[in-house]
Amino acid sequence: MFWTDATARQLIEARYPDFLVLWDNYRNNINKADALGYFVLYEFGGIYADLDFECFRPLDPVTRKYAAIFPLEPFEHSTFRLKIPFLLNNAIMMTRPRHPFLKFMIDNLMAFQMQMEQFDVAGPCFVTTNFVLYNKLKVDDLYNLSATPDGMSPYFYKGSMDETDENAVYVPNTHFFMNTLSTSGLHEQYFTETCLHLSPDSSTLLKRGCNELRRRKSRDSESHFRFTFTMHHWSETYSPSWTKVEHTYTNIRSIIPASILQIYSELN
Q1: What are phi and psi of 72, to 5 degrees?
Q2: What is the pLDDT of residue 245?
Q3: What Pfam families does the record tag this protein with (predicted)?
Q4: Residues 78, 125 contacting (CB under 8 angstroms)
Q5: Is residue 94 part of a domain?
Q6: Strand, coil or helix: what is 170?
Q7: If you placed Cys at 31, which of 26, 42, 125, 254 could pair as Cys (CB 3.0 to 4.6 Å)?
Q8: pLDDT grade, residue 8 (50/70/90)?
């Protein structure tokens, strides 16, 4: 199902009228795009993915075990860009309908509306903060390693709730869904230069980031994408440096057959 500006507002007006003022007063379209994903997934469930994702494998198997799946950005992003141990991303999300984490985020949208940074309003930092609050994590918990890592999940502590619980949020390792680095702003070259100036006094977080970057660069393409379901191409159309002049477009209707393409309508 695809969404336009008009049908997105139609959904909010019809099913979440208390949020319509919030919706109409968002400063930027990216805020609406971010928030829309939470409303849609809470209402219908399923898989949300930005249009700059490429699918390598069917996604059906990954949704059978967990009620909600929120992938991480590459560890280097959180380490070098934000100086935090992990960052959940909202560019691809998978949940059952009426999952309480989606409701939790929806209820907190108003409280974050006036944040200065786009990531904080309704984007990845918003999701990460709400994940921490939802799981009642303390500051010290964010830097604790999991006592029982299984190779499928990152090693950081994610709370006491079993990840297979119907109300839990499963956070998979980045190599499954978001295994590439951003190419704009602070990117691999910046990360590499930062690591060249690493010192014994550098933070443990930064040292871990540099170690992960070295491991990434040492893997060949086949090994790196061996277990990857999706690739994020990081178009980052929300960025001020992104311009339409530099890009070409293909109408979605010329790619998706009319029998499959569905544009949401409350009238249907």
Answers
A1: -85, 150
A2: 53
A3: Gly_transf_sug
A4: no
A5: yes
A6: strand
A7: 26
A8: very high
Contacts of 40 (CB under 8 A, 6+ apart): 1, 3, 11, 48
Asked whether the whole model's pTM tops 0.70, one would answer: yes
pLDDT in tens, 183-241: 877 889 999 999 999 999 998 889 988 998 999 999 998 888 988 999 999 877 666 65
Identify the CA nearest to 29 among candidates 254, 245, 244, 239.
239
The two beta strands, 92-95 and 230-232, are: unpaired
Helix (H) or strand (E) holding 46: strand 46-49
How far is residue 224's CA from residue 164's CA, in Å, rounded to a whole number? 27
Report residue 150 as tokens.
Answer: 């299984």
Asked whether residue 218 is domain-assigned, the answer is: yes
Question: Are 14 and 65 in contact, with CB atoms under 8 Å apart?
Answer: no
Using DSSP, state whether 110 is helix, strand or coil.
helix
Contact 242, 183 (CB under 8 A): no
Residue 87 in domain: yes
